[in-house]
Design a protein that fits this description.
- It is a single chain.
- By secondary structure, the protein is an all-beta fold.
- It has a single domain, classed as Sandwich (Immunoglobulin-like), CATH 2.60.40.10.
- The protein is built from no helices and seven strands.
- A four-stranded antiparallel sheet has the order 4-3-6-7, with no helix packed on it. The protein has a three-stranded antiparallel sheet with strand order 1-2-5, with no helix packed on it.
- The chain is flat, with a radius of gyration of 21 Å.
- The protein starts with 34 loop residues before the first strand and ends with a strand.
């Protein structure tokens, strides 16, 4: 508190200095696959998968666990039957590949 250039900012955040996040240095921008999903239509078993990967992704490979695949960034997939699905996303760039599979995270009725 004593180091603050303006002690009003302790009680009122509008006095804080704005700051800007700089891009991470290359050594900290490791490629890491990450994803989530939303259920668009539970009755029809339609799921949208959302890429949340870190790093400079050049290629996507989705395995929906039912024998179907996609290379889109945020694909929409319809499961033909009910089940618990192990979905895997692999992301790739010129420096390598990283994959993330979630076991039985996606469940359709």
């Amino acid at each position: 508190m004593n180091l603050a250039h303006d002690t009003r900012m302790i009680h009122d955040a509008s006095f804080l200095n704005p700051f800007r996040l700089l891009p991470l240095e290359k050594e900290y921008r490791k490629l890491k696959a990450e994803w989530t999903f939303i259920e668009i239509d539970g009755e029809e078993r339609i799921i949208q998968f959302l890429d949340k990967s870190l790093g400079d992704v050049e290629m996507y490979f989705w395995d929906f666990g039912d024998g179907n695949f996609s290379s889109k960034k945020n694909p929409i997939h319809r499961y033909s039957k009910a089940g618990e699905w192990t979905v895997k996303l692999c992301v790739q760039n010129s420096e390598g590949e990283n994959c993330l599979g979630k076991v039985w995270d996606v469940t359709t009725k």
